[in-house]
Structure prediction request, 951 residues.
Amino acid sequence: MSADIQNDGDSKPASTEATVSLPATGIAVVERKEPPPEKESDTQRRSWIVLSFWLIAVFIGLPIWWNTTTIYRANLPLTQMTDWADGKACEPVFPLRIALDVGSLPEQEAQNLLRLTQHALDDLNDFSGHHLRLQLAQAPTEATVQARDDSNVALTIRLAPGDAAHTASSSLHPHLPILDVQYPPNSLPTANSPSSGLATYIATQLGATFAEEQNIISYLLETSSITPEHRPKGISQEVVDTVSKRMTRSLKYSQTYHLSFSLFTNGPVPSSWDIEAAIDEYMKPVLDMLRPIHDFTIDTQVQLYASPGVQSQVLGKEDLSSFINAAEWPLSPSIGGAPTVNFIVYIGNQTIGVPSETDAVETSQSWMIPQWGSVYLLAPPAEAAHVSSETLKQPILTFTSHLLTLLGTPQSGSLPLRLSTLARIRSADLLLRASSSLGSLARLTLALPSISIPSNVADGVVKTIQHLELACAGLGGAKSLEHARIAEAEAERAFFEKSMVGQLYFPDEHKVAVYLPLLGPIGVPLVMGLLNEIKAWKTRRNQKLKAA
Amino acid sequence: MPKDKMSFQATAGTAGLFVVAAALRLLLFTAFPGLPNLLTGRVEISTPVTSFKRCTCRRVCSLYNHNVSPYDGGVYHQAPLLLPLFSLLPDPSTYPIFAYILYTLVDLLSANALYKIAESGEGGASRLYSSPRKEKRWSGYVVAALFLFNPFTIATCIGRPTSVFTTCAILHAVAKALSGNIFTSMLSLSFAAYLSMYPLLLLPPMVILAYDRTYNPKAPKSLAQLAGMCTLALTLTDLTPNAGLWGYSPSPRCSTASVRSSFGFFWLHPISSYTPALTIRLRQQPLAVITLLLGIFAIFKPYPSIADTSLFLSLVPCFRHVFPLLRYSFVTASVVLYGTFLGPAFYHLWIYAGSGNANFFYAITLVWSLGLSLLVSDLAFAVLRDEWEVERPEMRGKEIRQI
Prediction:
């Protein structure tokens, strides 16, 4: 439109033609009449108009365009993030302190034994990520062991002189992290001996106790984003397979789990069960011990006339996967924040006909469904309408052991050791996951320069790194799990920030499609107007120069 | 023209016209009770920034009455001053008649302003320019009637968007500028700019118009006075805490992709860039600048509605003298009618029948805009040709060609 206005004002006369008759020949010669020269004021006015368009485009259009289309990218500590993901920022080392309670041995001998055992341990242990360090126990009573639960002492070795005739023997205390070692008194090392049978024995026992934990942690490191040079020595394929099988069974880590206990029966009875008493009696102690690592919420239900997915009397191996009648049984999916673990007691006469090669822990009446829960087939009780607490003992104990497996607890060792190992494994797992999320975010940031990075993502990253540092500094300690948990949650939140996704699928071709139709009609008249003005100005200057 | 005589004419000569127009509106309101709500829901009439429903819906009013910002929640996008006005009205679902009377009155006020504008003869003869065809013009009576009985105006009135207040304010600003009442004119213009941001762009031609009309060669007026007028209007506008488009744009738009906000800008930029250019080119005819700018707004404004078109069309008859110079009047009229009839049909196909897609409606809005831009450029051509013929009287009636 602008071109129209400008040109119409001062263009017209060309089409008018003057006819000049030449009297001599009588032939009409048609001659184009030149338009009168443009007035000075008109030229000036046109310059002003072109100038006004340009001024608005430059001083209003461009700044607004720039402000509205600039993508906000908060500064991320990219090198730090990649360092974490590559394992450069944190050496994943678990310094485990083992207290040596020597009982009545004199100080000198105890020191000697300690030194030799440490030597033997260092010789035995080639995995740098898991470092066992011995120290002498201060006041070796059970009370203090309990009181120092939160310190870094993972295990106390209690030495006691035993029968001289027997070789050394050891046993794990069932309720406390204590390894009782009975040794023949003559096996104590002398002051200068380079090695000792007792020291080697203790070292081997310790190695065996922590072997599973070592394997799991090396597996976690192996499968993490950490680059090989920052990773401790690898483990054998065989170990990887067994550990990975176990890890895939367990649920993803969550602070809270929801336990859902269901009683399904084929007919109208039994219609009630003493589940609360049974849980309190048989499961509560374990849940209480798990409290520092997880919280639990519990619900229960009874469903009558529930038919299973498989009707056959003897369940084959392939029937087990379709036994759960997911279409009809009201089993709560994980709707809330917490993942659900389902425990099902099915009252019926069906039995499992699987050969005994299955896991020894599983009874012939129950099986575990990986990452989901567990099922127990219970024969109809004597008093038909009610399932008593005693009847539920075996199912609940089975469920408890399945729960530990589902949570990823290692299988060997006494319960306190298994749980402290679980805490360490989980903190390592969370640490590695948070680090790899940071790495993914860093890679995403570099790969997509057009993605916007809101400031809360930067905040999340800073918080993650801060907590990762704390977790890494106290690795193996009690606070470490808490920090790793916060770090992982923050990293996930930063990575899955909603406002970043919108730009993810906005390629540059779309921008061209948006800008071209606009820049064509706006840009061409603008540029042409400016060029014409410059040309006219040059001609005028030349004429002036000529005239002068 | 003496002021008192003009207003006298407005009351005596047009009373009958106003009564008929008001009666027609109230008849439509009462005879077809479903019509107002039907039209309120039409996209051509109500846009998110002007919708009557959003202004009066219970949620917004209760937010307002409970001292919560009505802009929370993204329903209400309009000027804050409208809210007390609408919460003063009795509930429109039970006593709709009050809203009907209010909107009819606003239309009549607009028509009155338009009457004054037409009667002033500014279209044909301004201070610096007098058209050779200026004798050929329509009286205020005709112009006001064309406005009042324009189907677009009637549909707008019945659809009750808030843009009628803007229309009224702009027309009054022009009328007051013509009568030399600078302060009232600037107040009206600021009110219009307050209701919807874009009338602020009318400030330069409006100031020139007011300056020309109050120009007195004996008492030389300086640039300082022009500057004073500008600051007056700008300070009045700055009082607005949350002016129209700009008030709401930060909240909903920043949360979505940044490209959307730049879309908004792309439509605002062409509008603003025409203002200085047209003002410079048509310095001698400020009313023509205002009319052309209103036409450009009706095309390029974000969220355009037929209320903007009816405002533009209402000022066009003031240029009756250049009508013979229009080249495409038939094409323009056909295209606008085509758009008017096919627009709702295609919208129905897209939204309700589902047998057409969004492109149907989009295409018809393009046709509609094409018709309007034809009219705007044709009018600009006619005004310029008229100006040119004063300069070159020998060219009257001859064909012209661009060189």
Remarks:
- Residues 427 and 481 of chain A are 5 Å apart (CA to CA).
- Chain A touches chain B at residues 1-2, 4-16, 35-36, 45, 48-49, 52-53, 55-57, 60-61, 64-65, 68-71, 452, 499, 502-503, 506, 514, 518, 522 (CB under 8 Å).
